[in-house]
RNA sequence: UGGCCUAUGGUGUAAUUGGCAACACUACUGGUUUUGGUCCAGUCAUUCUAGGUUCGAGUCCUAGUAGGCCAACCA
């Protein structure tokens, strides 16, 4: 909606052109066609947003179609996961479709093809066929079975269907052109024998169509107007059109395939094989590990569907090679979380501060605004007492004026609380500061309106009352790979770039209001970042994920020195 | 070596189709701020190269250069 004023991408230009040259608007229809053989990742998210985004823009239906033509790799588990992911992204499909729903129709069309002399049963080994296929620079050779009679082909194909042959003995091939410069047109295989149970058709079929004999027909059956796929399918377009030529009727809409460049994200990999390796080698805990670029991983990490959709829309779509910097994704995650996440206080690397002039045993509850970006988010109370934790990094015995946190003799504001002054500190045998003694100004309480409370102090720290703090496991994530393009190096394996410090588990001390959070809830730990409650979390053992840190200009300043 | 696709800042996309190269991110400067967050303002380009057509070229023409895809009974 907010992207309405954005200029058109090249796919939208194509659609506008079609609308101007005969297509009526109500004929537009799209589809998202995953193969149910793995989990969806951020690249799929882009494709989902493209197709469903087009559906929204043109008020057109979008089907979810499972490309389930290969029972050796596909499973119901993936179907369920894919549906969950698409729904989570916020989209509703018009129809839930399966290529397997079209098996009978596809078979009938294949029989028709044979009768028209456009297909034949080949009975060679795959090695022999590969030999005859030729190379991109040399034409192929005709199979010795290329000129079988229609009757023989029909009989053989039916026997294949009945399961009379073992796998690999016969295939059905289209009879096109063994000398075509397009390798896909050199008599492509249409059907193979597979004695495998299919997750939906069980053992009804012993032959299964290949992608090229299924996809375009599925589009045609569903009357998809624009079938969008990634660039590596561009050479398939000629075959896509050839197949449609064999069966379309003029009164029905003829789908068109158009191709776009797949989106690549920096500092990660998305190929199913590589993601699987990360899982199998235990680099991550599973497909939904919060470091994974899978949709389920991003969901668990705390990314919002809105942020992923906004990301997909701003990166747009084109035909050139690309690597989108992950910082753009993180920008959208922060941008959305900034609007919706409550600000709370948690200390992850505690240093005890004793406020020596605060009465022992006393406590008070201070008002705290939940979200300065959203007045309707309300407020809550946080407990304050004589002993609190602050972050170790927020105290230095001495520092220059650029460090405007706590230093000996210096003052800071405790967020939502008082102004304190560091008077002294205690160290252990190794010289580490283990406690800071401060005094506070009782008149400086936040929101009290006193002259003292309005004093400007440069630094404001988050803190947690020691005796009220609850503890939690906090998982700090960093990029999974140290290199922007881990699989872009010819001489090095992507596994060489795995970041050994991509997960750091620490104990956090949290303000007590956080005990009521539920799995998935998102908050901002003030000054630290956005966090959510992990699926591993329980009342006895809360677990938080750091979704994304806040921008940290101080860290950059320090790095420069 | 054949066919096809693609080249616009550090990154990703635009450019009313031949008319002042725009938007977002990143980075850097400053301002505001009870989060070193947010917010606000500013800075960062010989449009792959070389020729050509034109009053005018990112856009059209010619020749190069670079990258990608294509020889699975995968999708």
Explain the overall architecture.
It is a single chain. The chain is an alpha/beta fold and 561 residues long. Helix content is 25%, strand content 23%. Helix 2 (42-57) crosses helix 11 and helix 11 (305-315) crosses helix 12. The mean pLDDT is 96. The chain contains 13 helices and 27 strands. A seven-stranded mixed beta sheet has the order 10-25-26-27-23-24-11, with helices on one face. A seven-stranded mixed beta sheet has the order 21-18-19-20-12-15-22, with no helix packed on it. Strands 4-5-6-7 form a four-stranded antiparallel beta sheet, covered by helices on one side. Helix 3 links the parallel strand 2 and strand 3 (96-98). It has helices at 10-20, 42-57, 76-88, 103-115, 126-132, 150-162, 215-222, 236-247, 272-280, 295-301, 305-315, 326-340, 553-560, and strands at 30-32, 62-66, 96-98, 119-122, 171-174, 189-193, 207-209, 226-230, 256-260, 342-344, 346-347, 350-355, 363-369, 379-385, 387-391, 395-396, 406-407, 411-414, 419-427, 433-440, 460-461, 464-465, 470-477, 503-510, 522-525, 529-533, 543-549. The chain binds one RNA strand of 75 nucleotides through helix 5, strand 6, helix 12, strand 21 and helix 13.
Question: Main sheet?
Answer: 7 strands, mixed
Please report the total strand number as a whole number.
Answer: 27
Terminal-residue CA separation:
45 Å
Low-confidence stretches: none
Give the CA-based shape.
elongated
> What Rg, in angstroms, do the CA atoms define?
31 Å
How much of the sequence lies in strands comes to 15-25%
Task: Give the helix tally.
Answer: 13
Portion of residues in helices?
25-40%
Structural class by sheet pairing and helices: alpha/beta
Strand order of the largest sheet: 10-25-26-27-23-24-11
Average pLDDT reading: 96
């Amino acid at each position: 909606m907010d992207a309405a004023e954005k200029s058109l991408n090249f796919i939208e230009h194509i659609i506008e052109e079609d609308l101007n040259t005969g297509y009526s608007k109500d004929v537009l229809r799209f589809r998202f066609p995953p193969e149910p053989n793995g989990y969806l990742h951020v690249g799929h998210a882009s494709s989902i947003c493209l197709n469903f985004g087009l559906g929204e823009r043109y008020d057109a239906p979008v089907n979810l179609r499972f490309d389930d033509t290969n029972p050796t790799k596909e499973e119901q588990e993936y179907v369920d996961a894919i549906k969950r992911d698409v729904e989570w992204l916020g989209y509703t499909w018009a129809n839930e479709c399966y290529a397997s729903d079209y098996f009978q129709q596809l078979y009938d069309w294949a029989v028709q093809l044979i009768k028209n002399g456009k297909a034949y049963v080949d009975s060679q080994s795959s090695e022999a066929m590969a030999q005859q296929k030729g190379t991109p620079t040399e034409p192929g050779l005709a199979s010795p079975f290329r000129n079988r009679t229609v009757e023989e082909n029909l009989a053989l194909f039916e026997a294949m269907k009945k399961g009379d042959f073992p796998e690999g003995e016969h295939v059905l091939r289209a009879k096109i052109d063994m000398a075509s410069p397009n390798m896909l047109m050199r008599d492509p295989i249409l059907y193979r024998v597979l004695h495998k149970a299919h997750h939906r058709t069980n053992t009804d079929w012993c032959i299964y169509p290949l992608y090229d004999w299924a996809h375009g027909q599925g589009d045609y059956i569903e009357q998809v107007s624009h079938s969008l796929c990634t660039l590596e399918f561009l050479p398939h377009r000629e075959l896509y059109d050839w197949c449609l030529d064999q069966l379309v009727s003029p009164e029905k809409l003829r789908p068109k395939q158009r191709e776009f460049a797949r989106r690549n994200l920096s500092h990660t990999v998305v190929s199913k094989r590589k993601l699987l390796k990360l899982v199998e080698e235990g680099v991550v805990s599973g497909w939904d590990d919060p470091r994974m670029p899978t949709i389920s991983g991003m969901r668990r990490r705390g990314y919002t569907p809105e942020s992923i959709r906004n990301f997909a829309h701003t990166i747009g779509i084109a035909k050139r090679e690309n690597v989108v910097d992950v910082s753009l994704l993180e920008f959208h995650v922060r941008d959305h979380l900034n609007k919706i996440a409550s600000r709370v206080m948690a200390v992850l690397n505690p240093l005890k501060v004793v406020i020596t002039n605060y009465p022992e045993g006393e406590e008070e509850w201070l008002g705290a605004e939940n979200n300065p970006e959203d007045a309707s988010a309300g407020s809550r109370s946080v407990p304050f007492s004589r002993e609190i934790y602050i972050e170790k990094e927020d105290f230095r015995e001495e520092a220059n004026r650029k460090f405007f946190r706590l230093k000996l003799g210096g003052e800071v504001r405790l967020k939502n609380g008082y102004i304190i002054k560091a008077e002294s500190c205690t160290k252990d045998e190794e010289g580490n500061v283990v406690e800071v003694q401060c005094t506070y100004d009782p008149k400086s309480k936040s929101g009290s309106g006193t002259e003292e409370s309005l004093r400007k102090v440069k630094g404001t720290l988050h803190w947690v009352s020691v005796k009220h703090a609850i503890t939690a496991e906090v998982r700090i994530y960093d990029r999974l790979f140290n290199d922007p393009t881990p699989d872009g190096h010819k001489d090095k394996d992507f596994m060489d770039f795995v970041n050994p410090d991509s997960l750091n588990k620490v104990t956090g001390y949290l303000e007590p209001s956080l005990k009521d959070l539920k799995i998935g809830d998102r908050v901002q730990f003030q000054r630290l970042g956005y966090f959510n409650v992990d699926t591993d979390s329980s009342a006895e053992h809360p677990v938080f994920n750091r979704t994304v840190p806040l921008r940290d200009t101080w860290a950059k300043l320090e790095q420069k020195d």
